[in-house]
Q: What sequence folds into this?
C-alpha cells in the first residue's frame, strides 16, 4: 500500500508557542488512522496542516506523494499560490468539530455548493448526487432543512455528505463527535464506520476510544507536540507501553 | 370594565385539577390613569395648534405642486446616488481596513477618522467653497475646466453626502464581515473554494444579515440629511418648499408639507427595509419574523389582553 499522508519532522509554532515538535508518521491508502491525545497536544493542528489550513514551519508533509503548500525546485522551496492550494484541497474532505455548515443554505444546498462552484458540475447532476449522499447519511428527508432546524448529529452528517460530494481521496475528521450530545454520537460514528468500510482513507482526531479500537487500522498517541506511541489501536489501547499513554488512557477509558 | 375574556391557561393548571381556572384578572388601574393623562396632553397640543394662525388649506393645495414633486424627485435621486457612492466606497474602505497591507489599512483608517469626525454640513461647505482655492480643475490632458463650472451644486451635494456616508458604511461593512464565524471561511477553503468565491458565496451573504439593518437606517438618515444641501444652493424638497413658502406667505405650512413628504418617504423605506431584512434572515432563525400585517394582527390580539401566539412583539 502507498502512503496517502507522509509527515517528516513536521514543526508548527504559533508565535513563540511550539505546537508540533517534529511529527513523523505515515497514513496508508485506504486505512483509518486515529489520532488521540490530551487537548493541546497538537493533534488538531497536525490535521489542519494536512490540507494547509495551517502552514508548516519546518519539515515536510506529503499528501499522495505531493508536497503540501510548497513546490520544490532543485533545493529551493516555492510557496504555492492560493489557487494551487485550493486545487489540492478539492481532493481532501474535512469535517469540523463545530460542523461549520453554511447557515444560509439548506442541507442540500450545502452539499451541492462546492461541486457546483468549484468543479462546475451542473446543478441538476449535483443535486441528484447530493440527495444520494444525504440518503447515505440517513437524512434524505432533511434535504430542504436549514442547519438551525437540524440537531447537532444531523448537522454533522450533512457536513460529512458535503465533504463527500467533492469525491475526496482523503477525509480528515477533527473531533467530529466532541460537540454532540452523547445520544447523537452513535449516528455520526455509524456513518463514519460505513465510510471506512467503503475503503475511504480517513485521518480521525477523536476521543472516541471505542471507535478507534473497532474501526481504526492505526493509532497514534500524541502529547506535547510529539508522537509518543503508535501502532495497532487494539494493542496501544489495551497494552500501552509508554507511561504517558498509560496515564492518559487511564483517565479516558 | 373591559371585555377581558378568561382563557384556558393549561400551564397554570395544577396537575390534579384538569378543570380550567376561571379567575378575575388583575386590574391595572395605573394604566387607565396613564392613558387619561397622555390623552389629555395630546388634546392640549392639538388645541394649541388649532388655535394658531395656520392656513391648513395651503398644504393640500401645494401637496402635489409641480415644484414640490420636482423636489421629491431630486431628494430621492440624491439619496439614491449618495447611498450608492457610500455603499461602494464603504465596501472598498472596509476591505482596505481589513487587508494585511499596512498602507491601505492606514489610509482607510485615516479616511474614516476624518470624514466621521467632521460635521457633514462643514464638509458640504468645504466642497462648495473649494473654488476659492482652486481656480481650475486640471487633470492634465484628460480634463480641464474652471472650478465653478465643474463643481455644480449637484456635484457638491453628491460628493459631500456620498463621501461622508462612505465612512459610516465602511464601519458597518467591516462589522458585518467580522461577524461571520471564521469556521465558515475555513470550511469553504477546505472544500477548495477560492478567496473570492468564499467571500461572495459564503461570507457576504451572512454578513448581510448584520449589514442590512444599519444600512436601512443609513438610507433613512440620508433621505433626511439631503435637506442640508439646501445650504449649498441645491434645490430639493426642502428648498422648493421654502421657496414656495416665501412667495405664498405660507412659510410654516410649507415646512409642515415638507415634513409630511419626508415622513411618507421614510415610511415607505422602512417597509422596504423590513422585507430585505426578512430575506437575509433565512436560515438564521427557525421561523421567519412576521410580516407587518401579521404583526399588526398580533398587536391587536394582545390589546385584548390575550397572550399573542405570534412572536416578534417584544
A:
Amino acid at each position: 500500500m502507498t502512503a496517502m499522508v507522509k509527515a517528516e519532522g513536521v514543526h508548527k509554532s504559533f508565535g513563540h508557542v511550539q505546537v508540533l515538535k517534529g511529527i513523523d508518521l505515515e497514513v496508508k491508502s485506504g486505512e483509518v488512522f486515529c489520532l488521540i491525545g490530551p487537548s493541546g497536544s497538537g493533534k488538531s493542528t497536525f490535521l489542519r496542516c494536512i490540507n494547509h489550513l495551517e502552514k508548516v514551519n519546518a519539515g515536510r508533509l506529503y499528501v499522495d506523494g505531493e508536497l503540501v503548500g510548497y513546490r520544490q525546485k532543485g533545493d529551493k522551496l516555492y510557496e504555492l499560490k492560493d489557487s494551487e492550494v485550493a486545487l489540492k484541497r478539492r481532493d481532501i474532505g474535512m469535517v469540523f468539530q463545530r460542523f461549520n455548515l453554511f447557515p444560509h443554505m439548506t442541507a442540500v444546498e450545502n452539499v451541492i455548493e462546492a461541486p457546483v462552484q468549484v468543479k462546475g458540475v451542473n446543478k441538476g447532476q449535483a443535486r441528484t448526487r447530493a440527495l444520494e449522499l444525504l440518503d447515505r447519511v440517513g437524512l434524505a428527508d432533511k434535504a430542504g432543512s436549514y442547519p438551525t432546524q437540524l440537531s447537532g448529529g444531523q448537522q454533522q452528517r450533512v457536513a460529512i455528505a458535503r465533504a463527500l460530494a467533492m469525491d475526496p481521496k482523503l477525509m480528515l475528521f477533527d473531533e467530529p463527535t466532541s460537540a454532540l450530545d452523547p445520544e447523537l454520537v452513535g449516528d455520526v460514528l455509524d456513518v463514519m464506520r460505513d465510510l471506512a468500510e467503503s475503503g475511504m482513507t480517513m485521518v480521525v482526531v477523536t476521543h472516541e476510544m471505542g471507535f478507534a479500537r473497532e474501526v481504526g487500522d492505526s493509532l497514534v498517541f500524541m502529547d506535547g507536540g510529539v508522537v509518543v506511541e503508535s501502532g495497532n489501536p487494539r494493542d496501544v489501547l489495551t497494552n500501552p507501553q509508554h507511561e504517558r499513554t498509560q496515564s492518559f488512557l487511564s483517565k479516558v477509558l | 370594565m373591559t371585555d377581558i375574556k378568561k382563557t384556558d391557561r393549561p400551564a397554570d393548571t395544577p396537575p390534579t385539577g384538569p378543570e380550567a381556572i376561571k379567575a378575575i384578572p388583575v386590574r391595572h388601574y395605573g394604566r387607565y390613569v396613564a392613558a387619561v393623562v397622555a390623552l389629555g396632553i395630546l388634546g392640549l397640543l392639538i388645541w394649541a395648534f388649532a388655535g394658531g394662525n395656520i392656513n391648513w388649506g395651503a398644504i393640500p393645495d401645494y401637496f402635489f405642486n409641480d415644484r414640490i414633486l420636482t423636489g421629491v424627485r431630486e431628494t430621492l435621486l440624491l439619496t439614491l446616488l449618495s447611498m450608492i457612492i457610500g455603499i461602494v466606497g464603504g465596501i472598498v474602505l472596509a476591505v482596505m481596513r481589513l487587508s494585511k497591507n499596512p498602507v491601505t489599512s492606514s489610509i482607510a483608517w485615516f479616511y474614516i477618522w476624518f470624514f466621521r469626525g467632521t460635521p457633514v454640513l462643514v464638509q458640504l461647505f468645504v466642497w462648495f467653497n473649494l473654488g476659492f482655492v482652486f481656480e481650475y480643475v486640471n487633470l492634465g490632458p484628460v480634463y480641464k475646466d474652471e472650478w465653478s463650472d465643474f463643481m455644480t451644486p449637484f456635484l457638491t451635494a453628491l460628493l459631500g453626502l456620498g463621501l461622508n456616508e462612505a465612512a459610516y458604511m465602511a464601519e458597518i461593512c467591516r462589522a458585518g464581515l467580522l461577524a461571520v464565524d471564521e469556521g465558515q471561511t475555513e470550511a469553504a477553503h477546505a472544500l477548495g473554494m477560492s478567496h473570492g468565491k468564499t467571500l461572495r458565496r459564503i461570507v457576504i451573504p451572512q454578513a448581510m444579515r448584520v449589514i442590512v439593518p444599519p444600512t436601512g437606517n443609513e438610507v433613512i438618515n440620508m433621505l433626511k440629511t439631503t435637506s442640508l444641501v439646501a445650504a449649498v444652493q441645491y434645490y430639493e424638497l426642502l428648498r422648493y418648499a421654502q421657496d414656495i413658502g416665501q412667495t405664498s406667505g405660507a412659510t410654516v405650512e410649507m415646512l409642515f408639507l415638507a415634513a409630511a413628504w419626508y415622513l411618507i418617504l421614510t415610511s415607505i423605506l422602512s417597509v422596504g427595509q423590513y422585507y430585505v431584512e426578512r430575506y437575509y434572515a433565512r436560515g438564521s432563525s427557525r421561523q421567519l419574523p412576521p410580516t407587518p400585517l401579521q404583526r399588526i394582527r398580533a398587536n391587536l390580539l394582545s390589546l385584548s389582553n390575550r397572550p399573542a401566539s405570534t412572536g416578534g412583539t417584544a
Q: What stands out?
A: Chain A has nine helices and twelve strands. Chain A touches chain B through 32 residues (CB under 8 Å).
